[in-house]
Design brief:
It comes from Flavobacterium hiemivividum. The chain has about 40 residues and is of the alpha+beta class. It has one helix and two strands; from the N terminus they run βαβ. It has one helix at about 10-25, and strands at about 1-5, 30-35. The chain has a two-stranded parallel sheet with strand order 1-2.
């Protein structure tokens, strides 16, 4: 699962959201990618 964000700071809620997605999809690996900073 890949989740792409464009924010200046990754909040802990984004990590929890990705973990929920992984749990619901029965997956073990997820990438949280942020393009919001230089």
């Amino acid at each position: 699962m890949v989740e792409i964000k464009e924010v200046s700071l990754i909040a802990t809620a984004f990590y929890a959201q990705l973990q929920n997605y992984l749990r619901c999809a029965n997956l073990e690996l997820g990438l949280l990618i942020n393009f919001g900073t230089s």
